Amino acid sequence: MGMTISEKILARASGRSSVKAGEIVWAKVDKAMMDDILGPRVEIAEKLKLLGAKVWNPDRVTIISDHYTPPANAKQAEIVKFTREWACENHVEHYYEFAGPCHQVMVEKGRVAPGEVVVGTDSHTCTYGALGAFATGIGSTEMLGVLATGEIWLKVPQTIRLRFDGALQPGVMAKDVALRAIGTVGHNGATYKAMEFCGSTFRSMIMDERLCVANMAVEAGAKNGLIPYDSITQAYLRELGVDGGWPCESDPDAVYCQDLHFDASALEPLCACPHEVDNVAPVRQVTDVAIHQAYLGSCTGGRYHDLAQAASLLRGRKIAKGIRLLVSPASREIWERCAREGILTTLSEAGATVLASSCGACLGIHSGAIGAGEVCVSATNRNFIGRMGSKQGQVYLASPLTVAASALTGRLTDPRDIC
């Protein structure tokens, strides 16, 4: 019987010739990632010292301060300071600060390769599945064990295959693909399962868009999300200077717990309505929603392609009076590239406020939190009650193009309706 990508990677990591869904394996970890909010400060530093253990391989560990940068208050500043100093004391040279959200930084810095097992103290670690890695979020206690031993036990997940075929129509982006998948599977329909995205749509999809889809897999409860390695993956990694890894694909006779097929050419701009990510509807069906804030950014919707697409729609136009359009590029590198190419200028001239690269607004802790009664349309990944600030606020998730279009009209707007 054949194996899926997830099964092949976990078989290799556990030193076995084969594994099957449901088995528990001890897997060697290739890379471990921590951020500031759920990193060394949360039991890890104290208990590692209590165990008398050292970091098993500092070169395989990456620490990124992104949620509390730039710090909004003294408490956040102290957490970032502690994280920075702990990284230095434990010889973790791959420490990044003010570089942007951790998942984009991990990819840009070449810290992920195909076929690797990558774990991180952030649920959206599944983003790296776009590069063909088995990547999953873990808790701080699990990370303590990884740091001490370099291993982790994992249950081999069943796999849901989601095949998208056909070309995306103008105005439709990868975020719409992700929302279509989540709306079908449900916010917990893939709990402890792998989501494997494939089909002709993905074979022609650029890496910026693939990263968005893999990032959103956890919103269906998935353990990990994967896109098969191909020439696009290879070219992208070569550009980053990443060699090696262990590219693989699912066997023709691999077993899936679900096999879903979608006509991507029939997709239209979608949004996830409050307060569930699977509460998905076509944007044209919810255009009576007035907004106060539009947000472009995060590890989901702030990449170069996202901002370039938004700028192309906003060029020569002005956002609606009274609307806040906030832009936070997904990394410092993206910020600088968009600045060089005039994309940030275009967005600013349209009325946007350009922020530092940070996770702050995505989880409502700084740089764009919303107040009671306010409505935000956001290119981020979560919209549960209180996610972006007040529990009396509302968040609609949508693509960067839909966010830009909505900023122009002051209402939730299908980008195809902007002439």
Write the layout of secondary structure elements.
Elements: H1 5-13, E1 24-28, E2 31-35, H2 40-51, E3 61-65, H3 74-89, E4 95-97, H4 102-108, E5 117-120, E6 134-137, H5 140-149, E7 151-155, E8 158-165, H6 174-185, E9 193-198, H7 200-203, H8 207-215, E10 224-226, H9 231-240, E11 258-263, E12 270-272, E13 280-282, E14 293-297, H10 298-301, H11 304-314, E15 324-328, H12 332-340, H13 343-349, E16 353-354, E17 375-378, E18 394-398, H14 400-409
Parallel strand pairs: 2-3, 2-5, 3-4, 5-6, 8-9, 8-11, 9-10, 14-15, 14-17, 15-16, 17-18
Antiparallel strand pairs: 1-7, 12-13, 12-18
Helix pairs in contact: 2-5, 6-8, 11-13, 11-14
Distance between the termini: 53 Å
CATH architecture of the largest domain: 2-Layer Sandwich
The stretches of 5 or more residues where confidence is low (pLDDT under 50) are none
- The portion of residues assigned to helices is 25-40%
Strand coverage percent: 15-25%
Roughly what is the average pLDDT, rounded to an integer?
96
